[in-house]
Fold:
Amino acid sequence: MVRIVNYIKRQKEDGTTFCTLEVQAGIEMVLSQKTNQYYVTAKKTFISSTFDEETCQALIGTQVQGSIVKQVCEPYEYTVKDTGEVIVINHRYVYSPQEATGSSSTTVNSDGLEAFSKNGKYETVLAD
Structure:
């Protein structure tokens, strides 16, 4: 399950506006590679909607069937706000109507194909 936690009003190139819903999955415990200590986090993503602001506001707190999965995408640069470090990322998180299973993760590549992984890494496998 995911929960609607916020909404953001956005503007299209033609000047019209629409709202996106910010959805968040449950918490996860992640082991820091730097400190070797656990921290808690949650995956978030945005979903476009046809709702007005009043409806989006009323939806905050609503739980929705589904999960947030990692999707491979074209690499892009991201600046870490705290340090100013620029890193290259080649994934994004997207909403999936299917529930995630257990501690393994599902990764969706740019072709829309899913890869099952216990370590959260996506590797292309060619079959005969």
